[in-house]
Amino acid sequence: MKSYNRFIFLFSVGCFLSGVLLCGCATTFTFAPGGKKYDNGYVVKRNDVIVPEFTVDKLGKAPADLNVAKARFKRRKKTIIHFYQEMGYFGSTITEDAGLFLSAFTVPVRTPIEGVKYNKYKNDPAYRAKIGAQDLEEGKKEQEKLKAIEDKMHEYIEKDIALENSKNKEESK
Fold this sequence. Notes:
This protein has 173 residues and is mostly helical. The chain has one domain (29-172). It contains 4 helices and 3 strands. It has helices at 2-22, 66-87, 93-123, 125-172, and strands spanning 29-33, 42-46, 49-51. β2 (42-46) and β3 (49-51) form a beta hairpin. The chain starts with a helix and ends with a helix. 10% of the residues are buried. The mean pLDDT is 85.
């Protein structure tokens, strides 16, 4: 009887922790008019935030036809999500939540270390300059990385539009 109660307890705790980690992980995609910025064409919203790359053309105009927008979204969804994940935007909520949960246990170890670093940064001008230079260099590298990923994404969109145009020409013949 004791092992049965232990199993029920552990199962309940496991279900609770799974629920905490998994809640809010469902991503919703909706189509909506983009307004004047996108020539009143249809854009896709991911969790109520417009992600224009799912539907726009190489000039930044969204399609006026909902069926065209749906077709573009269907073709581009996985690739555009991949580009955004490379840029650090569409992170996995499960891993982020788990990391936040586990980081709470590391606070007693990290706090004194961060305190020493802060004190050194505050009182040592040479160290402050060194950290500032490192931050600038990291910022430049990050900007270059983001620019390269954005360029790849725009190249992909141009290729997708060219493919769409060639299919439309074949269908019109």
